[in-house]
Amino acid sequence: MNSAFDVVVVGAGPGGIAAAAVAAEAGARVCLLDDNGRPGGQIWRGYRSETAPKYPHGREFLKWTSRLHRTDCDIWSGWRATDQPAAHCLRLESDEETRDIQFRSLVVATGARERFLPFPGWTLPGVTGAGGLQALVKSGLDPRGKRVVVAGTGPLLLAIAAGLAGAGAEILGIYEQAPRSRLLTFGLSLAALPQKLIEGAGYRRKTLRAPYRTNCWITRAEGSTRLESVTVTNGRRQWTLACEWLACGFHLVPNLELPRLLGCRIADGYVSVDALQQSSIAAVACIGELTGIGGMDKALLEGQIAGLAAVGRQSAADALASRLIPMQRFARKLDRAFALRDELKTLAAPDTVVCRCEDTDYSELMECSSWREAKLHTRCGMGACQGRVCGAATEFLFGWQHSGVRPPVFPSSVSTVAAKADLPDAIPLS
Amino acid sequence: MRIRSSHADNCGPTSLSRMEQNSNMSDLFSIDVNGRQVEVAEGTSVAAAIMATHQACRLSVRGEPRAPLCGMGICMECRATVDGKPHRRTCQLLCVPGMEVVTE
C-alpha cells in the first residue's frame, strides 16, 4: 500500500507532534509516524489525558495532543522508516507490512538515545539505561520495593531518580560523573532560563532521601545471573552497594541514522539547519534533539517552526525563530557541563563486552585503529542494533568517527528490502 | 502487573503493577510469558511484562542472558518471540490479551 502526503513527520515526540499539529491546522495533508505503540516520544511515554496533569510536563502533553487530535492528521504508530527508495519517498515497515510513503516536505524528529559506556558487568540483566529504566517504568514495569542506583551523567539523572522514587523505588544514590564545580558554573549560567533551575530543584526535593554525589562513577556491576551489586568510586576510594537495578546512562546522543541516510549535512555531532530548521537537503527539516540536545521546550518550538515552514507560512515561522536562541545556548551548555571524564575510558576490562550484539570484547577492539577496521575484523557494530549502542561508546573510547549509513536503517525483513518502489504517477510532487 | 503462576513451583506473585498513569483497574488482562500467566495493565509493554517475571529476554552470541537496556527500541536486547514471531522488540510492543511470549 502506498500513500502520499503534503507533510510527513518522522517521530511523534513533542517536536514531531508540534510540527504535525501546526501543519495540519494550516490545512495540509499530514502523516505523523512513529516506531512506538503510541505518540508521545520518550518524555510523554505512557501519558494519558486523564492523569497527565499529575506528571512532569503533563500540561504540555495535554495541550499538544489535543491540538493534534483536533486536526485530520494521520497518526501511524508502530512504523519505522528504513530507507529512501526514491526522491520524496520513504520506505516504512511495521511488524506486519511494508509501505512506501510520499511527501512534499519531510520533518525528521527522531530524537535522541542514551550513550552507554562499557564497564565490567554492564551486560547483566538488571543493568539498564537511566532513561531506559524510566521508559520501562512508564511502560508498566513496577519499581516498588526495588533498590536502584542511578548513575552516569546528565540533567536527566535527577528527573529519572525523582520519577522512580515517586513510583515507589528505593533510590540508593545518584552518582554524577561531572565535577561539582562545572555543574555550579552551569547552574549559574541558567539565569536566562530560571524555569530549568526550578525544575531541577523540584526533582531534587523528591529525591532528598538519596545522596546526589558529583565526581562519582560506576566502576563495575556484579551478580551471578543478574545484578546483585555495583561498585562506585569518587576517584580516591570505592564502595559497593547491593541493589536490584542499576540505571546508568551517559547523557544523550541524537538518532542521526535517518538524516545521514537522506544526506543531511552534520557538523559537530548534530544536523546543521537554518533558522527555519531546513537541513542541507531540500524539503527535509530536522528538529529537536537532532540539532542539539536541548529537551522538550526546544523541540516544541523547533517543531512549530518546521511545521509552519513546511506549509509555506515562512513569516509565522520566522516570528518564532528568535525565541530559539536561549534554548540553543542551553543545549550547548549542557554538552559542556556534562562532558565525559577521561577515567570513564578505562573502565572496560580486556574481556568486557563492548558490542552487545556480537559480543565483541574490549581486547579485540584495542587491536583496531578505526570503526571501519573494527567492523571488518571483529564484527563490532554489525549486529542487530547496527552500532547504535557500541558506536557512541567507541566514539568516546577510541575517538572513532562513524559517517556512512546504509539502508535499511533498521533491521528489516527481506521482502521490505527487496520491494520495488511502486509509486503512483497521479500524485504530482513539487 | 501480577504474575499468576501456572506452575506451583514458580516464583510467587509480584505486586500489582500500578504505574498510576497506566493503570486503571478495569483494564487488567493476562498474557502468557513462557507458560506463566502475567497480569498486566492496559498500556504495558511486553518488555515490562517479561522483566516482572525476572527472566532474561535472549541469549547473546556467547550464551549470556540479556535483558532490556535502552527501553526505547534502540538496543535490540529485549528481543523475544511473540505470538510465534521471533526477534520482536518487546519494549516497543504493547501487551494485548492472550499474547504468547517465549524468551530464550
Summarize the topology.
The complex is a heterodimer of chains A (430) and B (104).
Chain A: E1 2-10, H1 14-25, E2 30-34, H2 58-69, E3 74-77, E4 80-86, E5 89-93, E6 98-108, E7 112-114, E8 127-128, H3 130-138, E9 147-153, H4 156-166, E10 170-176, H5 180-188, H6 194-205, E11 212-213, E12 217-222, E13 229-233, E14 238-242, E15 245-250, E16 252-254, H7 257-262, E17 266-267, E18 270-271, E19 284-286, H8 296-310, H9 314-321, H10 325-337, E20 353-355, E21 360-361, H11 362-366, H12 371-378, H13 390-398, H14 414-418
Parallel strand pairs in A: 1-2, 1-6, 2-3, 6-19, 8-15, 9-10, 9-15, 10-11
Antiparallel strand pairs in A: 4-5, 5-6, 7-16, 12-13, 13-14, 17-18, 20-21
Helix pairs in contact in A: 1-2, 1-8, 3-4, 4-6, 8-9
Chain B: E1 2-4, E2 29-33, E3 36-40, H1 46-52, E4 58-59, E5 65-66, E6 79-82, E7 85-89, E8 100-102
Parallel strand pairs in B: 2-8
Antiparallel strand pairs in B: 1-3, 2-3, 4-5, 6-7, 6-8
Describe this structure in words.
- The complex is a heterodimer of chains A (430) and B (104).
- Helices cover 31% and strands 23% of the residues of chain A.
- Chain A has 430 residues and is α/β, with parallel strands linked by helices.
- In chain A, strands 1, 2, 3, 4, 5, 6 and 19 form a seven-stranded mixed beta sheet that branches. In chain A, strands 8-15-9-10-11 form a five-stranded parallel beta sheet, with helices on one face. In chain A, strands 12-13-14 form a three-stranded antiparallel beta sheet, with no helix packed on it.
- The longest helix of chain A has 15 residues, at 296-310.
- Chain B has a six-stranded mixed beta sheet, covered by helices on one side. In chain B, strands 4-5 form a two-stranded antiparallel ribbon.
- Chain B is globular and about 40 Å long.
- Residues 4-25 of chain B have low confidence and may be disordered.
- With 104 residues, chain B is mainly beta.
- At the A-B interface, β8 and α3 of A face α1, β5 and β7 of B.
